[in-house]
């Protein structure tokens, strides 16, 4: 079974790579001003040997992506595609990250494969995978960070937590929207800490001293204290590695606090005459961009089309309904509640880079951190729909068995 899953995943990755790399030397033509500025900063780093963690020009940009682009220019020359191929690499690897995160959250291979496939063919994600903007790093670091964090909790594995901290810390050096990511990671962390605390209390109850008449009998235990996972230890390790990985840009902002806010202060809803109504409006427009009307900026989207096509949009709505049921329904498994809470937190907090602004809404670029949860929820909906059809139309059993 795993061989079939691996072959399907490789086929999806190949398809995603094709859409992201095909004709990247010519499409889109030319360079956008922001891409050109990245290239100029990259050339400056190559010529001077000064590699910055933050480039303050052009409203300020985190330096990790620009520095990687500079290496690409050094390897391939001063070509537009040399800048954009880095986006294509991040975009292709994000498909794998979303698959892994979806499988960890859903514990369902079909849902994970659907999520990966929807990402591979998503115009929303393909478009930004072919443009040299640092925003493409946000879904990459978010997906792998969440995946390794959840896997680390499940397996009680030190190296999983180390990798989770590395991906999370580097995310802060990738794109400004990642600053809302701690609220997403807080959900599984708090959930696991609460689970650990409850299990310790139950264990302590079962390990209470036995009465004298049963001194020679073994004390019943719910878990083995010698192998009981130290969840606080795992969390501290994750936070420490995250801190170390994010330290370069954190130290820069400590020394240059004026660069921390940058352009976000210029487009904030709080600068509007009525911040609350502006925030409500931006939330409605952002929510509607998935299935009603998308970003009208031709650099971000095509003819104001919804960010999801009709079928994926239906699966997304279905996935939201299923996750709401898993979160609030009675007798739902704890893992399903945690997964749903994580996905909804992911949706909400990674929408804030768009909804807290009052310019160019809906804004597909600033909302790019929402791509992983949107695709994962769509995968949930698609997997449920196929199970539903298979149960009622057995002729489809052969089709669904191959997915």
Q: Would you summarize the structure shown here?
A:
Helix content is 66%, strand content 1%.
Helix and strand arrangement:
Layout: H1 2-21, H2 33-48, E1 54-55, E2 61-62, H3 63-76, H4 80-106, H5 109-120, H6 123-129, H7 137-155, H8 158-171, H9 181-206, H10 231-255, H11 258-261, H12 275-288, H13 310-328, H14 334-349, H15 352-355, H16 371-392, H17 397-401
Antiparallel strand pairs: 1-2
Explain the overall architecture:
There is one protein chain. This protein has 403 residues and is an all-alpha fold. It has 17 helices and 2 strands. It has helices spanning 2-21, 33-48, 63-76, 80-106, 109-120, 123-129, 137-155, 158-171, 181-206, 231-255, 258-261, 275-288, 310-328, 334-349, 352-355, 371-392, 397-401, and strands at residues 54-55, 61-62. The protein has a two-stranded antiparallel sheet. Helix 4 packs across helix 6 and helix 4 packs across helix 16. It is globular.
Q: Which class do the helix and strand fractions yield?
A: mainly alpha
Question: Which outline best applies?
Answer: globular
Residue share in helix? 55-70%
Give Rg in angstroms.
23 Å
Number of helices: 17
Mean pLDDT: 90
The count of strands amounts to 2
Content of β-strand? under 5%
Name the strands of the widest sheet in spatial order. 1-2
Main beta sheet: 2 strands, antiparallel
Q: Gap between N and C termini, in Å? A: 11 Å
Order of helices and strands: HHEEHHHHHHHHHHHHHHH
Spans where pLDDT lies below 50 across 5 or more residues:
219-226
């Amino acid at each position: 079974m795993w061989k079939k899953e691996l072959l399907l995943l490789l086929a999806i990755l190949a398809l995603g790579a094709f859409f992201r790399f095909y004709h990247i030397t010519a499409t889109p033509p030319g360079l956008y001003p922001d891409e050109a500025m990245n290239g100029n900063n990259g050339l400056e780093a190559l010529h001077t040997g000064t590699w910055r963690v933050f480039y303050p020009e052009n409203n300020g940009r985190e330096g990790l992506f620009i520095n990687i682009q500079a290496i690409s220019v050094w390897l391939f020359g001063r070509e537009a595609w040399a800048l954009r191929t880095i986006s294509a690499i991040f975009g292709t690897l994000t498909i794998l990250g979303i698959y892994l995160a979806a499988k960890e959250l859903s514990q369902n291979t079909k849902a994970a494969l659907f999520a990966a496939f929807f990402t591979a063919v998503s115009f929303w994600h393909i478009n930004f995978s072919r443009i040299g903007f640092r925003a493409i790093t946000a879904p990459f670091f978010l997906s792998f960070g969440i995946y390794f964090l959840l896997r680390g909790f499940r397996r009680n594995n030190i190296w999983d937590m180390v990798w989770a901290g590395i991906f999370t810390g580097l995310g802060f050096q990738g794109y400004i929207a990642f600053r809302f990511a701690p609220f997403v990671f807080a959900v599984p962390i708090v959930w696991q800490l609460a689970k650990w605390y409850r299990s310790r209390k139950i264990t302590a109850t079962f390990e209470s001293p036995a009465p004298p008449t049963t001194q020679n009998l073994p004390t019943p235990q719910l878990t083995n204290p010698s192998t009981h996972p130290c969840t606080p230890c795992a969390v501290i390790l994750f936070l420490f590695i995250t801190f170390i990985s994010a330290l370069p840009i954190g130290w820069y902002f400590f020394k240059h606090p004026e660069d921390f806010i940058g352009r976000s202060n210029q487009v904030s809803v709080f600068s509007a005459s009525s911040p609350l109504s502006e925030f409500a409006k931006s939330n409605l427009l952002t929510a509607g961009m998935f299935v009603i009307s998308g970003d009208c900026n031709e650099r971000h989207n095509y003819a104001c089309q919804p960010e999801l096509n009709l079928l994926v949009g239906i699966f997304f709505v279905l996935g939201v309904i299923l996750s709401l049921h898993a979160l609030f329904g009675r007798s739902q498994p704890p893992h399903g509640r945690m997964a749903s809470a994580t996905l909804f937190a992911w949706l909400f907090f990674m929408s804030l880079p768009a909804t807290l602004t009052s310019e160019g809404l809906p804004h597909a670029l600033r909302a790019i951190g929402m791509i992983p949860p949107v695709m994962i929820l769509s995968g949930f909906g698609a997997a449920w729909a196929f199970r539903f059809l298979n149960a009622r139309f057995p002729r489809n059993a052969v089709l669904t068995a191959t997915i």
